[in-house]
Write a structure and sequence with these properties.
Layout (H helix, E strand, L loop, with lengths): L1 E5 L4 H12 L3 E5 L9 H9 L4 E3 L6 H10 L4 E4 L6 H6 L1 H21 L4 E7 L22 H19 L4 E7 L1 E3 L18 H9 L6 E4 L11 E2 L1 E3 H18 L3 E6 L5 E2 H12 L5 E4 L8 E2 L4 H7 L7 H13 L2
Parallel strand pairs: 1-2, 1-4, 2-3, 4-5, 5-6, 6-11, 7-10, 8-13, 9-14
Antiparallel strand pairs: 9-12
The protein binds nicotinamide-adenine-dinucleotide and uridine-5'-diphosphate-4-deoxy-4-fluoro-alpha-D-galactose.
The site of uridine-5'-diphosphate-4-deoxy-4-fluoro-alpha-D-galactose has 22 residues, from helix 7 and strand 8.
Length: about 325
């Protein structure tokens, strides 16, 4: 299939591009490089021996997107392009709504115009807000506390409405839990600009000596060691989930599916620190600090539906996630 990947030079996008190429798909990437590096294309080429077709523009430029769909016969779209920092979205709500929601609307309009009706969308566990119980199943109430999360909720609803208006669409809403780790080649991974917001990239920088210590946000949660618990999922496992979603549509035709992509296992911040120390052989200095505003205590998936519908089963545990993150960090 010819698959258009929006945000394909980003962290999850680049790993998905590699997996798509591996199983024989033709990949076309559009990315405005606002949060990724053009050099990722070289890395993808080294890993796969194939250089994906690349367009560098913002998906909000509808004329350019229209031209792209005219030039290439696109069979399906995987839509990663978005701004993704929760904290930043609180200070820059308009930019988040504009980029994430307006960008998606333009993409869906152009898809409709060109009769491309197959899409896999990057949603997030953030749409569950602070869940009343765990593990989280897909039928839990949706709620959110920040513009980033709200943009995901709106786009999910847009896609549900599109499907309700025209049942010849195939739509997968994939709700990711916490993607971490890197490709085993050490060539692609997560390398945020500035101070990392997320736990594992921060720990990686402490391990490499770039930062002195990790600040552990909250040690008084009702968890086994008082620190926040999350469902960390290896980015390669997550990438494979997208291939499985596309395969699902080949056998099931037109449907809208909503699935959690997580492992079903929760690890605390201190569990991750310990696993990273073991994997890297480095000491991770940390300091306990008050809770981070907006954080919840525990979040992990019930991955049963993903397994049932897609055959999704994660291969990599926390040790491999830390090891691959560390190998990537050392290779930077
Ligand atoms: P990322 O920032 O590494 O990748 C996103 C890519 O999209 C970047 O390369 C960026 O340059 C590009 N982009 C952004 N806006 C664009 C636009 N308007 N036009 C063209 N390109 C644009 O992020 P990621 O971690 O790979 O996340 C991918 C998707 O998964 C996002 O939609 C994100 O919201 C979602 N998600 C991520 C996480 C996570 O923890 N990483 C968790 C849940 C959901
Ligand atoms: N944490 C620290 N110190 C840090 C960074 C994080 O203690 O420097 C803690 C947090 O308090 C939390 C855990 O590590 O308990 C995980 O935090 P992350 O920032 O790595 O991840 P979040 O669960 O807060 O959010 C991430 C993405 C969201 C996405 C969500 C669910 O950033 O966009 O996972 O998929 F919505």
């Amino acid at each position: 299939m010819n698959i258009l990947i929006t945000g394909g030079t980003g962290y999850i996008g680049s790993h998905t591009v590699v997996e798509l190429i591996k199983v024989g798909h033709n990949v076309i990437i559009v990315d405005n490089l606002c949060n990724s590096d053009i050099k990722v294309l070289d890395k993808i080429e080294i890993i796969t021996n194939i250089r994906p077709i690349f367009y560098s523009f913002d998906i909000k430029y509808s004329t350019l997107l229209d031209d792209l769909f005219t030039k290439h016969k696109i069979d399906a779209v995987i839509h990663f392009a978005a701004l993704k920092s929760v904290g930043e979205s609180v200070t820059m709500p308009l930019e988040y709504y504009e980029n994430n929601i307006s960008g998606s609307i333009i993409l869906f309009e152009i898809m409709k115009k060109h009769n491309v009706k197959k899409i896999v969308f990057s949603s997030s566990a953030t749409v569950y807000g602070d869940p009343a119980t765990i593990p989280i199943t897909e039928d839990f109430p949706l709620q959110t506390t920040n513009p980033y999360g709200f943009s995901k909720l709106v786009i999910e609803q847009l896609l549900r409405d599109i499907y309700n208006s025209d049942k010849s669409w195939s739509i997968a809403l994939l709700r990711y839990f916490n993607p971490v780790g890197a490709h085993q080649s050490c060539l692609i991974g997560e390398n945020p600009n500035g101070i990392p917001n997320n736990l594992m990239p921060y720990i990686a920088q402490v391990a490499s000596g770039k930062r002195d210590f990790l600040t552990v946000f909250g040690s008084d949660y009702n968890t086994h060691d008082g620190t926040g618990v999350r469902d960390y999922i290896h980015v390669v496992d997550l990438a494979i989930g997208h291939i499985q979603a596309l395969k699902y549509f080949e056998t099931h035709g037109c449907e809208l599916i909503t699935v959690n992509l997580g492992t079903g296992v929760g690890y605390s911040v201190l569990d991750v620190v310990n696993a990273y120390q073991k994997a890297s052989g480095q000491t991770i200095n940390y300091r306990l600090a008050p809770r981070r505003h907006g954080d919840i205590a525990i979040c992990y998936a019930n991955p049963t539906l993903a397994n049932k519908l897609l055959g999704f089963k994660t291969q990599f545990g926390i040790e491999q996630m830390c090891l691959d993150s560390w190998n990537f960090q050392k290779n930077l």
